[in-house]
Amino acid sequence: MQEPSTVQLRNSLRQTFRERRKALSVIEQSDAAKKLVQQCIDLKLFEHKKRVAVYLTNDGELSTLPLIEYLWSIDIEVYLPVLHPFCDGYLLFLRYTENSLMLANNFGILEPKLECHKICPVQALDVIFTPLVAFDDKGNRLGMGGGFYDRTLQAIHKENPVRLIGLAHDIQQTLALPIEVWDIPLPNIITPTRYFHFK
Ligand SMILES: Nc1nc2c(c(=O)[nH]1)N(C=O)[C@@H](CNc1ccc(C(=O)N[C@@H](CCC(=O)O)C(=O)O)cc1)CN2
Ligand SMILES: Nc1ncnc2c1ncn2[C@@H]1O[C@H](COP(=O)(O)OP(=O)(O)OP(=O)(O)O)[C@@H](O)[C@H]1O
Known about the structure:
CATH topology: Rossmann fold
CATH class: Alpha Beta
Enzyme class: ligase
Strand content: 15-25%
Shape: globular
Keywords: ATP-binding, Magnesium, Metal-binding, Nucleotide-binding
EC number: 6.3.3.2
Binding site for ATP: 10-14, 141-149
CATH architecture: 3-Layer(aba) Sandwich
Radius of gyration: 16 Å
Bound molecules: ligand FFO, adenosine-5'-triphosphate
Cofactor: Mg(2+)
Strand order of the largest sheet: 6-3-2-1-7-10-11-12
Mean pLDDT: 96
Number of strands: 12
CATH superfamily: NagB/RpiA/CoA transferase-like
């Protein structure tokens, strides 16, 4: 019998880990989200930072709601990913405030209504928190399968100070993910109990 291809392996891992995170209870989810905020505070992540990109929780992802409230409370600008209207497969980052007009995208995820003056270029963000489905012990990231973050984050270069940090539940960690050439490994991942720094 033929070995499964990398694409097949990644799809089956995606399914397993999506089910795993969706099975977390409401209490586990809200506890995890609060611990995430405390982790960020303990790590002093937001000192001297102005603009932070997060995501709005979908499909059992680690909730960012308490984190967003915290960022607003310390006057840090919050940005959310918006599907690019004409560059297929790319994301824009738009300012998100309590007054933002929100619209559902093709996947049913709310995003700020597209207004050009609310866009922040990727390079001007201080921190980008990315969602993920699974991660391994080298910082490789498996996402929802659209390649959106991989494409968009290509614009960040080594000399650029944007901090890329993956957010995940502890149960999203696995030993070694099958990787693809376009995958952008994450230098850091934060879970409710751990902070990973990958070389
Ligand atoms: N919260 C959050 N926002 C995000 C992402 C994410 O992973 N999480 N994205 C990260 O890139 C982008 C959206 N990417 C996504 C890709 C696939 C699906 C999804 O649910 N796919 C369905 C099939 C949907 C369909 O084909 O109509 C599925 O696989 O079941 C969701 C978001 C931008 N915003
Ligand atoms: N930099 C890139 N340039 C062109 N195509 C890309 C790039 N990155 C990913 N893709 C395409 O996107 C598809 C999905 O990629 P992948 O499985 O790595 O997505 P993902 O990391 O799980 O999703 P996401 O980043 O949206 O969370 C692949 O089939 C690949 O062809």
